[in-house]
Amino acid sequence: MRKIDFSLILKLGVLSLIVGTVLAVMNFDPLRFWEGIWDALIDGVEFIFGRGLDGLMAAGRYTLLGAMVVIPIWLISTIFSRRKKSITKAEKTDA
């Protein structure tokens, strides 16, 4: 795990400022965003329980649809993370 130091906090702060500025220019409101997420979760639960088995089937389809995006991204990031660790180990043993 990476050590948290002042330079990391500074980088994250600068990056947050840049992203925040871009989102403000796009008229993005964080409160509306989180309210939208909450409303979507409530609607999803009502949808599943309101439709019974059909709702569960739809939730399964949505899960598979999301997994088509999430799993490959996770797999690629895991492969690159392990590759980076093995390269770092090799460099340490060579030194």
List the helices and strands and how they pair.
Elements lengths: L5 H20 L4 H22 L1 H42 L1
Helix pairs in contact: 2-3
General description of the model:
- The chain is mostly helical.
- The protein has helices at 6-25, 30-51, 53-94.
- Helix 2 packs across helix 3.
- The mean pLDDT is 82.
List key phrases describing it.
95 residues, mainly alpha, 0% strand
Mind summarizing the main beta sheet?
none
Structural class: mainly alpha
Q: Roughly how many Å apart are the termini?
A: 22 Å
Secondary-structure element series? HHH
Number of helices: 3
Mean pLDDT: 82
Q: In percent, how helical is the residue content?
A: over 70%
The gyration radius over C-alpha positions equals 21 Å
Summarize the structure.
The protein has 95 residues and is mostly helical.
